[in-house]
Amino acid sequence: MVVLDPAHGGLDSGSRISESTLEKNVTLALAFKLRSLLVARGFAVTMTRDADVPTQPDASGSTLTLDDRAGIANHAHAVACLLLHATAAGTGVHLYKSDLAPAPTLPSVVPWLTAQSAWIDQSSALQQQLANALSRASVPTIISSASVRPEDSLSCPALVVELAPTNSDPDSINNADYQQNVAQAIASSLVFWRNQVQPPQPSHPPSPTHPAPPTARKRTP
Q: On the CB side of 150, how many CA atoms lie within 13 Å of its CA?
């Protein structure tokens, strides 16, 4: 399972990339390309929205809250959660992991606002793997960390994947071949990632299983 979260949507347009390009449309276009490629590679994919106006949880058409998005992702038990954003700044793809301090083990009760801390090491490994794949695809890539919700609340390997234009023209971010190249690199990398991801160790080991009751002895007359 992979979770794709195309940021914004509905009444929330996100940033304005250019006079004619809104972030909410770029993130959804990239999500559709990624979903198609991932499904073709045998993944199940959950998208937090697959239209401009989310139908849940607000019938009025307002956007999903950040907590709603985190809840969808956490219920999916994904091998990767990608939060898709777009920006007019720079070029290529910017990959952000959470800047929470890594937790050594998974606590028995996971705090909502710092759930990602137990997954930081896995997210760092995923970040490097995607960066390598994008570099091989000749896509300029920046890796960094940031405190971004709902990333900090995700209990899976998670990254913000922020798409920037391919050149000095902001509208080049809409180039279908460019988006497809980015999506192809990410999807191909996730094929290898799904065999590498390891859940964090729990802080308390599971209780030992109870031994089977002894076999009753047959009575002799």
A: 27
Mean pLDDT for the stretch of residues 185-213: 71
Compute the CA torsion angle 149, 14, 31, 167 (nearest 10 deg).
Answer: -110
Contact indicator for 27, 85 with CB cutoff of 8 Å: yes
Enumerate domains of the chain plus CATH numbers: 2-193 (3.40.630.40)
DSSP one-letter code for 150 = T
* Token output for 11: 């009444």
Band (185; pLDDT cuts 50, 70, 90): very high
Residue 127: what are its φ and ψ, rounded to 5°? -60, -45
Task: Work out the mean pLDDT of the chain and round it to a whole number.
Answer: 86
Picking from 7, 116, 16, 15, the residue whose alpha carbon sits closest to that of residue 64 is: 7
